[in-house]
Amino acid sequence: MSSLPFHDLHFQALTPQSLEDLMRIEESVYAKPWTRGNFLDAMKNNNWCQLLMNEGELTGYFVAMMGFQEVHLLNLTVAPSYQKRGLGLHMLQCLGMMSQTVNAEWIWLEVRVSNARALEVYEKFGFRKVGERKNYYPLTTNKREDAIIMSYRL
Ligand SMILES: CC(C)(COP(=O)(O)OP(=O)(O)OC[C@H]1O[C@@H](n2cnc3c(N)ncnc32)[C@H](O)[C@@H]1OP(=O)(O)O)[C@@H](O)C(=O)NCCC(=O)NCCS
Predict the structure, then answer these.
(1) Where do the domains of the chain lie, and which CATH numbers do they carry?
(2) How far apart are CA 122 and CA 126, in angstroms?
(3) Residue owning the nearest CA to atom 14 of ligand 1
């Protein structure tokens, strides 16, 4: 996306050394953030763990898992100060291209029913709602929240 107002956008793989910067964003964005252990497991399992950098600064990241002819997007996050500037869509486009290189036919994801912003961005990209998972996400101590399942045909 050449029209994005950033001059040095590039991806780099997540490493244990870059995890501190990522965790600062993760913990500032989510009420129920992933833990360091979750990200380390994702790296160990050879999930795609990509950082979107601009001029040395971490602007966002995604984690996705490859399956048979499909890719499951597990985490997509843009740093608060970089949101609403096209980076979420940019990461989805890059994930789409990466997924094509492994001959995937679908990308799947789950999103909280309350996450209107993410739903909007996923729909804008081309994801469609295909189902729900009841009580999928933890909410408060004894409450849970449904997930919407979305898919994108590559
Ligand atoms: C959901 C999330 C990833 C979206 O990322 P984002 O970077 O804010 O989304 P984008 O900016 O790409 O969204 C596209 C919007 O940017 C606009 N935009 C601005 N400049 C743009 C450009 N140059 N190119 C493309 N789009 C651009 C688009 O028009 C669109 O506008 P809209 O607000 O009217 O929809 C982000 O809000 C986030 O990290 N939220 C918290 C974590 C989260 O909920 N993650 C998802 C969990 S399932």
Answers:
(1) 9-153 (3.40.630.30)
(2) 6
(3) 86
